[in-house]
Fold this sequence. Notes:
This protein is α/β, with parallel strands linked by helices. The chain has 15 helices and 13 strands. It has helices spanning about 10-20, 25-40, 55-70, 115-120, 170-175, 190-195, 230-240, 290-305, 320-345, 355-360, 365, 375-380, 390-415, 445-450, 475-490, and strands at about 50-55, 80-85, 125-130, 145, 150, 180-185, 200-205, 225-230, 275-280, 310, 415-420, 450-460, 465-470. The strands form 2 sheets. Strands 1-3-2-6-8-7-12-13-11-9-10 form an 11-stranded mixed β-sheet, with helices on both faces. The longest helix is centred in the C-terminal third of the chain and has 26 residues, at about 390-415. About 55% of the residues are buried. The model has no long low-confidence stretch (mean pLDDT about 95).
Amino acid sequence: MVGGFELEEVTIAELGRQMAEGERTSREITELYVDRIEALDRQGPTLRSVIETNPDAFEIAEELDRERAAGNLRGPLHGVPILLKDNIATADRTTTTAGSLALEGSIPRRDAFVADRLRQAGAVLLGKANLSEWANFRSNRSSSGWSARGGQCRNPYVLNRNPCGSSSGSGAATSASLCAAAVGTETDGSIICPSSANGLVGIKPTVGLVSRNGIVPISAAQDTAGPMARTVADAAALLSGMTGEDSLDQATVGSPVPTDLTRHLGEPEAADLSSLRIGIGRQFFDRDSRVDAVMEEAIATLRILGAEIIDPVEIPRRGEVGRHEYEAMLYEFKAGLNAYLAELGDGAPVASLADVIAFNEANAEREMPFFGQEILIEAEAKGPLTETAYRTARDTANRLSREEGLDAALAQHGLDAILGPSGGPAWVTDLVYGDRFSVSSSGPAAVAGYPNVTVPAGHLQGLPVGVSFFGAAWSEPTLIRIAWAFEQEAPHRRPPRFRARVDEA
């Protein structure tokens, strides 16, 4: 199954063509992915990227095949198998647990808006992807990609390396062609980092483009779901299928972003960036000279495409945001999680953050064999969102990251986007000391709630490195255009080969 897989690197458009021309059915495609999961995720390299597959996936695929045969085509995702991160609620026979044993067996009363939209678009919800438990908001010594339910997810390029979090399973599974594409979620870096580390395109949308309804929360101000895929076109197609106004999430009302984000891709003018000004975020350089060299090549590619490069560009106040962001998130996590658990009803295994903490303490051997839950305890100590300390922290984080941060930098130079390194090469997974992040530029857009797109830009010792393009609120069409043009001019995506170590031939 390693190499030679019939659907390795296949695009969503190609799957659609195969089904339209009768070469394969959705049922056959779904079977191939489930077999691949069994061969590579459960056995062989043992990626541990998928917590569970949907027992109804074959039946769903067959129904979609019948619809297609009857001339009912829902769109480009019709019959396409998609994985969801295990913090996105599904009211089916798959559970939604955020990777925690405290929610084992929990089935929400209704789908998350994202899951419902994808069903309506004709996607086959293939199963739930592993993640950093509680989306990596549990301990300061956590290992990205570890959850009590799923174990430690592995990077498919080099198996002893980390897939980055918290959407680690979504990243590893998509990169290894265990699905057509996957949905991840981000609060700060959790789509961008695993997409970069797993050689993928990832889109972290503007907060409000995709509904947060039904997603296990960290921060209502920063949380968003987004697509993770092997090409820009696939990511844009998946994002288009996820968007829409949701009466239960007022942030989604009135979005100016078009519902079809693929409509300009493939046209020659989309590859011409001569009308765009792209700033270089030099603040994010000088941490790894090898990553810097990959970024310099990316900048050269943008010049070839005609973009006007403004270098350097500084984002003001960036270093002052972190402590205000963290303080606000502690409050938001407690309030948001308690509300989510209450929505599950009386049958839920736990009803509050306090219950989760107590469960972990009572089941420490299974839940906390490597690291603790100090962040959960910090959050539980916080009061309601009406407290002045919370409002001050969130208002300050918003002001520093938006008006005095990204907005100021974009306006000062008349920029369409800013470039930064998405991350460094994946580090060796360490269950003793935890994660070792080295390079990142995801923070400003994450805290501001603005969009960010990462695309493969190169490799270091066979490990992928991505480049990020981020900009103003609702600038997804421009960022996707830049990423697509870059991908066409300099395609750096390579399928993983599951090496045990970097020095393995």
